[in-house]
Amino acid sequence: MTAIVHLVLAVWASSVLGQECGPVAFPITDVRTDLAAANSFMRGIPAKIGTPPQDIVMLPWAELNNTYIYDEQSDCDPSIIFNEQICKVRRGGYFIETDSTSFSKTSDLISAGGASQEITTTGTEIGVKRLISTSLAGRDRLDVGSGFVNIPLGIPRLRWDNGYTTLHALGLGSNSTYLNALVQAGQIPSRVWSLFWGRMWTDFDAMDGSLVLGGYDREKVIGRNFTQPLDYSEETGCWTGMKVTVNSLLVNFRNGSDFSIMPRNSAVQCCIVPQRQLLWEAPSGIVDAFEAATQMKNIGFSFGLHWSARLYNSSFFDGELSFLLSNGLQVRVPNSQFLTPFVDVARNGSRVVDRSKRELLMNGLADQPATLGRYFFTSAYLMVDHDAKTFTMWQANPSVKSSLVAVSKGGCGGTAGGTGTAANPPSTGTGSSSQETPSNTGAIAGGVVGGVAVLAIIAAVFLIRRRRNRDPPVSTEGASDSPEVYHKPQYLPPQEIHGTNMYHHGGKPVELRADNELQPPQYIHSGKRDSRRTVHELDGGRF
Ligand SMILES: *[C@@H]1O[C@H](CO)[C@@H](O)[C@H](O)[C@H]1NC(C)=O
Ligand SMILES: *[C@@H]1O[C@H](CO)[C@@H](O)[C@H](O)[C@H]1NC(C)=O
Ligand SMILES: *[C@@H]1O[C@H](CO)[C@@H](O)[C@H](O)[C@H]1NC(C)=O
Ligand SMILES: *[C@@H]1O[C@H](CO)[C@@H](O)[C@H](O)[C@H]1NC(C)=O
Ligand SMILES: *[C@@H]1O[C@H](CO)[C@@H](O)[C@H](O)[C@H]1NC(C)=O
Ligand SMILES: *[C@@H]1O[C@H](CO)[C@@H](O)[C@H](O)[C@H]1NC(C)=O
């Protein structure tokens, strides 16, 4: 019966309204996370959770199956995040589950309907092995931008992550409970997601990124696609399933000459990890070669938002970087997206930008797996298709225009058969998915529409009510809207900001990855944090 209602909903919505089931796009944008703290911006996806809805900021997470939401007890690593205020901002606000009337606690994540496995390949975050078994669990409604769905949630009680990917984690892994729920609810046609990170820290071409579910954005890609199978096997050593090989890295000087900084026969296998905070975590020899080619001399490492980047205070390189992948894809990254200003969240919660310094968004690795991180997707476009078990990349077209294309094997509601890719006729819009009409529901409609008129009326009532209940969108303030955020160099000598060095000469930030030792038991805590409770009462726990 439920299945029939879902089917009817999907058919009715798409054939009568022509709008409800199809790909949806959400902005990846600067969101102010704490109304009590000026400039407390984090870049992510604004979302609502619980009843009444609480505002949080989420980061799409490529390998997690479950979605993990932080409450006031989800603490931050004090070696990277120096106080509670910074933690609250960098977490993207806290979800206070006790304030949500729709939160239902369960004994564990699996009994909440969560996925029973997360991948634990070497290179993933250190605590992921015990995340399912140690998290507080329950179900609540979550609206990332396409309406509320009720999904299982883990609320970490283990300090499992690194200090630089702290936002609420929207799990988009191979058995993603969020994608599964949207497909079952007939909101999207397939378990496909696509990502463009946008452009940051620049005045002239800053733009929001976009996450598309159920398809991709044709406006944001250029040329042919490069498609490979998703491979999660231990042997590949790539926990997101997306392994590529960088054959060559070219330094593109302003005078037009290009210089290859990778020796012949030194191709680097990389795991694509779009949530990571840099462009490339690469063997340190390559980062050294970049410095030699550009004659830049670092003054240490960044302990800010681009944690572990190399830091410079003079003689900034003004050219670009080109990646040549073994599959044929070429990606040219503009200067502004790999030599960014120094950025951090100050103790008072404000995001501060110091333009007198630059961070090279490449981190020299010793023996950890190399990764291509979020800044790669300022210049490349990624699509992950869990139904077809493939991932696809294009050269990105950095554009605020949007034209969504459904990618689907079956149809909405997950009930139709058939194969192949359904593409919509091109349409140019402003990022609103509601202009897209899936092309693959007609056949289903023909078969069932006659017998379901009554159910369709029920569905209509349901949909109208759902729309009425929907809250107005979170107000976001993007980089381009508030340039003053980027124009106030706020750099203080390291000891005044952190009480310790912000960057180390010769020192190196410690990696907390699964190839290190498991965390000591004191990282798991269950104690009450009275100071956090006070903060919550001051501002209602929301923005
Ligand atoms: C995916 O997770 C669900 C629980 O959300 C579980 O029932 C199902 O067996 C999992 N699928 C696979 C292929 O393991
Ligand atoms: C997600 O769930 C599937 C099915 O349970 C499991 O095989 C996989 O290891 C999990 N994680 C990833 C990244 O695939
Ligand atoms: C990628 O390219 C192939 C071959 O040109 C084409 O058949 C396929 O539809 C393309 N995929 C997408 C998602 O555009
Ligand atoms: C361009 O600039 C680079 C770096 O300064 C230099 O090595 C190279 O010779 C220049 N090429 C030309 C054609 O001037
Ligand atoms: C850059 O940093 C070095 C070492 O910390 C310092 O000696 C130098 O004066 C700084 N240069 C500028 C332009 O700030
Ligand atoms: C927050 O701290 C930064 C850096 O110390 C400072 O520049 C800024 O003015 C402070 N903001 C407020 C609102 O106090």
Rg measurement, Å: 23 Å
- CATH fold group of the domain at 195-398: Cathepsin D, subunit A, domain 1
Low-confidence stretches: 1-5, 7-19, 415-543
Oligomer: single chain
CATH class of the domain at 195-398: Mainly Beta
Which small compounds were modeled alongside the protein? Answer: 2-acetamido-2-deoxy-beta-D-glucopyranose
CATH homologous superfamily descriptor of the domain at 195-398: Acid Proteases
The helix fraction, in percent, is 10-25%
Largest sheet: 13 strands, mixed
Number of strands: 27
The dominant shape is globular
Structural class category? alpha+beta
Mean pLDDT: 77
From the 3D coordinates, which CATH architecture of the domain at 195-398 would you assign?
A: Beta Barrel
Proportion in β-strands: 25-35%
Structure annotation, total helices: 10
From the N-terminal CA to the C-terminal CA, the straight-line distance is: 40 Å
List keywords for this structure.
single chain; disordered N terminus; Cathepsin D, subunit A, domain 1; binds 2-acetamido-2-deoxy-beta-D-glucopyranose; 13-stranded mixed sheet; disordered C terminus; eight-stranded mixed sheet; 10 helices; globular; alpha+beta
Q: How are the elements arranged and paired?
A:
Blueprint: H1 2-17, E1 24-32, E2 41-49, E3 54-61, E4 67-68, H2 84-90, E5 104-106, H3 131-134, E6 136-143, E7 149-155, E8 168-171, H4 177-184, E9 192-196, E10 209-213, E11 215-217, E12 221-229, E13 243-252, E14 258-260, E15 268-272, E16 280-283, H5 284-294, E17 300-301, E18 310-312, E19 320-325, E20 330-333, E21 339-345, E22 351-360, E23 362-365, E24 370-372, E25 380-385, E26 390-396, E27 404-406, H6 442-448, H7 453-469, H8 484-487, H9 494-498, H10 530-539
Helix pairs in contact: 1-6, 1-7
This protein binds 2-acetamido-2-deoxy-beta-D-glucopyranose (6 copies).
